[in-house]
Amino acid sequence: MISGKEKDYFEDCELGETLRSNGRTVAEADIHQFAGLTGDWNPLHTDAEFAKKGLFGERIAHGPLIFSLGIGLSVQIPNALPKHFIAAYGIDRVRFTAPTKIGDTIYAQLEVVKLDAKDDNLGVVTTEVKVINQRDETVCSYLAKAAVARRPKS
Amino acid sequence: MISGKEKDYFEDCELGETLRSNGRTVAEADIHQFAGLTGDWNPLHTDAEFAKKGLFGERIAHGPLIFSLGIGLSVQIPNALPKHFIAAYGIDRVRFTAPTKIGDTIYAQLEVVKLDAKDDNLGVVTTEVKVINQRDETVCSYLAKAAVARRPKS
Amino acid sequence: MISGKEKDYFEDCELGETLRSNGRTVAEADIHQFAGLTGDWNPLHTDAEFAKKGLFGERIAHGPLIFSLGIGLSVQIPNALPKHFIAAYGIDRVRFTAPTKIGDTIYAQLEVVKLDAKDDNLGVVTTEVKVINQRDETVCSYLAKAAVARRPKS
Amino acid sequence: MISGKEKDYFEDCELGETLRSNGRTVAEADIHQFAGLTGDWNPLHTDAEFAKKGLFGERIAHGPLIFSLGIGLSVQIPNALPKHFIAAYGIDRVRFTAPTKIGDTIYAQLEVVKLDAKDDNLGVVTTEVKVINQRDETVCSYLAKAAVARRPKS
Amino acid sequence: MISGKEKDYFEDCELGETLRSNGRTVAEADIHQFAGLTGDWNPLHTDAEFAKKGLFGERIAHGPLIFSLGIGLSVQIPNALPKHFIAAYGIDRVRFTAPTKIGDTIYAQLEVVKLDAKDDNLGVVTTEVKVINQRDETVCSYLAKAAVARRPKS
Amino acid sequence: MISGKEKDYFEDCELGETLRSNGRTVAEADIHQFAGLTGDWNPLHTDAEFAKKGLFGERIAHGPLIFSLGIGLSVQIPNALPKHFIAAYGIDRVRFTAPTKIGDTIYAQLEVVKLDAKDDNLGVVTTEVKVINQRDETVCSYLAKAAVARRPKS
Fold first, then answer.
1. Confidence band of A154 (pLDDT split at 50, 70, 90)
2. Angle D107-D109-D110 from CA coordinates, rounded to 5°
3. Could you tell me which chain A residue has the CA closest to the CA of C41?
């Protein structure tokens, strides 16, 4: 894990700061739990016989599971965002670029790619997140936008 | 629920087709399960005392949970996509527009907003998805892109 | 709870023996977990808004969940069956006779209703199981058949 | 999957209509989850060392889990029942005919075997369900009875 | 399993009584579920790549999971404590003495090691619990203290 | 939350350092999940009708669940222990001092109470942990012992 530097306000964020989460192995149980929670029992994810004959030769994790795990791994990195974080603003360009198979281990790699001061009170920090597996393949990527308070002028 | 019309190929998709999933109540248990699965135990979602004093006055569901439920509800709509569906291409412009509280019921409303023939073999269908609650508020929206086979020319 | 008498063989079973399990409250979480495990997200069980307008005025538990809980509560009763129990033979006449709502507490009441010696080695014990709630309503009933060894003739 | 034909009333049901659900792999996690939900921690299902020395040489799934998965797979088949379905009437002759081991994949095969008009308003549709594994063995079977409205005489 | 003798009061407890629970296999799913429930996603337990390079060469279960399973296995032993059991008094000297790996099977072995009459109404029964795996290694041990009523005089 | 100061070795630990975790609401779903995981379905925890007539007038959480949540909340505090942490050494004097009811919110409060240099390489840090609820009652307490490396003498 590479933690962030402590920071208070939008002004303390730095373009190019790069963080890295812990890893997490994706278990068959995780896929079944996510299928259960969302109701998405597509046989691509949960029918081993069907998946055997398909493109990947075995079951793969749901894309939104990997995306959700990416978010979860990110928020566990200390000081990823300033203390005066206001809200998750939205997510752009979610792409599923490679399959995640049962037993793969993934981690999230974050890079601050845009700092956009909206007005005197608020800035938007855009972080590019890559979910990467143990073979260094990017399996999912997205841009996360966070609204952050600007440092008050005294 | 409003199911889709049966369709085989990209050519069978229609701009403006509108579908609607079943509803699903978001339980405290779902929020704890999602926190567990992803490791995102932000007190905004799972600490009732903390949330009481916050912006919403009570705990709210994780954004990515609502997004994932939106996907899950969508894939349970019969014939939402043509039979010759190839792959989920990506998701754009995920926005979290209102909080989901414990006990709220959500459903997914889909509208085909773009049909983009890439070449003779492949088209991309873009669907705008709105996750809507029992008070008719849109709590999350996104654009889902699916690669679909074109009808073979014989 | 009313436990069974210790018994070794088919010959030790008594027509009319009556047992009673502990109680168990059926939580919203149990219904969501069962919906997840089985993929049965019928809105009758998991959409509070839909259920409000339906026959029961609120969500009810899945029938097979109540049946499964009945089996689970039964097997936790000590000495319900003889030590030389061989196998669960089958289940007959499963009937869902009243709804189970969120927060109801159920227990299983068992009565041995038939003892059928098949041959010198094997007998079948038929137990009538009633799943009963805190208002003394029978919500599910069934006949469970168990194959049990006969006492060896020395 | 073989979906049903769209049908409105009891009169639209056909003796011999045969449907087939998607498949679903039974994970160790599913067995532990079901043991947890029901409290049935019989070592036959959840103690690998005990099961190694037993009849099947390894752990097997709980019968009521396979039965519940059979129901869950069935209700996910589009148009298995007419729109004017009233209620699940009951289940008869549940039989556990072969073990399900960790990693087996099962699906439900349905055949309408009896159509019984009760009166001018109501009919009972009896469906024989076989839960079948990837080796084409029937692991569980039962008769599911559904009350369905008759077509109104105008 | 070695069950306890039926006993009513503190006076019926015997120093040296030894009980043994059923076994239970520890699944990867159990470790992920416990990580989820408690928020303890230490990579030692849930990151296969990290664990590969560590002291044990693979992932191991959380200590408190094994402790909790030990308690759970113990309470399932019939007659482990007298009927007039009042309360779990506390736990002393919890020690984690060997790792539990995915797929290991554990059981709880109990021995009454101290009987301490506090006054005319109450006694404390101290039980040494060893959680043992299929290789007969003690993986966790602790002393469980239970308050039990004394037999009324007259 | 009160995080720890960054520290490398045993020598950097300070007697009296006090930390505080985030809070976490204990849901009915958590109690059912823990009952499921451990098999401890004591009606005190999971039978609302039984609990209504008991000492506390309602269901209460399992002691080992609260203990496990205390551990889980503690490990989420950044810098609770030095980087050269070696192993959790054991837990002493676990006491359950007040009930936790459904909907209560708990957090863990840590205080370093003993620093014990064993030899030139190793020290033991003893932390008193109190699990406290929203009414400032201590519901569980214990002493956690951690083995930590001493600063190398160069």
1. confident
2. 145
3. A39
Residue F148 has pLDDT above 80, yes or no: yes
Q: Mark yes or no for CB contact A36/C41 under 8 Å.
A: no
The answer to whether residue B73 neighbours chain A at the CB level (below 8 Å) is yes
Give residue A84's pLDDT.
Answer: 94
- Does residue C2 lie in a domain region? no
State how many domains chain F has. 1
- Neighbouring C-alpha atoms within 13 Å toward the C-beta of F90: 16
DSSP F101: B
pLDDT in tens, B24-65: 999 999 999 999 999 999 999 999 999 999 989 999 999 999
Count chain B–chain D contacts defined by CB atoms under 8 A: 3
* Mean pLDDT computed over every residue of chain B: 96
SS in 3 state form for E62-109?
Answer: CHHHHHHHHHHHHHCCCCCCCCCEEEEEEEEEEEECCCCECCCEEEEE
Quote ipTM for the complex: 0.94
* Mean pLDDT in residue range A14-20: 97
Q: Has residue B2 been placed in a domain?
A: no
**Rounded to two decimals, what is the model's pTM?**
0.96
3-state helix, strand, coil in chain A (%, to 5): 25, 35, 40
Give the list of residues 6+ apart from residue B35 with CB closer than 8 angstroms, or none: B41, B45, B46, B62, E36, E39
Measured between alpha carbons, how far is B38 from E41 in angstroms, rounded to an integer? 10
Residue F77 lies in a domain: yes
D41–F41: do the CB atoms touch at under 8 Å?
no
Cβ–Cβ < 8 Å for D47, D59: yes
List pLDDT tens digits, range F37-61. Answer: 999 999 999 999 999 999 899 999 9
Partner-chain residue, chosen from F30, F88, F95, that has the shortest CB–CB distance to E37: F30
Q: Which residues contact D17 (CB under 8 A, 6 or more apart)?
A: D4, D5, D111, D112
Q: For residue A3, give the chain F residue with the closest CA.
A: F78
pLDDT at B77 over 80: yes
Q: Which domain holds residue E45?
A: 10-149
A-B interface: how many C-beta pairs under 8 angstroms? 86
Considering all CA atoms of chain B, what is the largest pairwise distance in Å, rounded to the nearest integer? 66
Q: What is the CATH number of the domain that holds D93?
A: 3.10.129.10
Task: Pick the residue from chain A with its C-alpha nearest to D133.
Answer: A49
Instruction: Please state, in angstroms and rounded to a whole number, the distance separating the CA atoms of residues B142 and B110.
Output: 10
Cβ separation E37–B36 shorter than 8 A: yes
Residue of B nearest to F1 (CA): B43
Distance CA C145, CA D145 (A): 21
Within a domain: F116: yes
Decide if E87 contacts E146 (C-beta within 8 A): yes
Contacts of range A124-129, beta carbons closer than 8 Å, 24 or more positions apart: A124/A89, A124/A148, A125/A10, A125/A13, A125/A81, A127/A80, A129/A70, A129/A74
D36 contacts chain F (CB < 8 A): yes
Chain B residues lying within 8 Å of A67, measured CB to CB: 64, 67-68, 91
The beta strand positions in chain B, using DSSP E, are 18-20, 24-25, 85-96, 105-117, 122-133, 138-149
| Predicted pLDDT of residue D125 | 97
Average pLDDT, chain D: 96
Provide the pLDDT for residue F122: 95
Nearest CA in chain B to A37: B30
Low-confidence ranges of chain E (pLDDT < 70): none
Q: Is A22 helix (H, G, I), strand (E, B) or coil?
A: coil
**pLDDT of F87 over the 90 cut:** no
* Residue E76 distance to chain A (closest CA, Å): 26
Query: Rounded to a whole number, what is the distance in Å from the CA of D48 to chain E's nearest CA?
Result: 6
Interchain proximity B43–F30, CB inside 8 Å:
no
Chains that touch F (3 or more CB pairs under 8 A): A, B, C, D, E
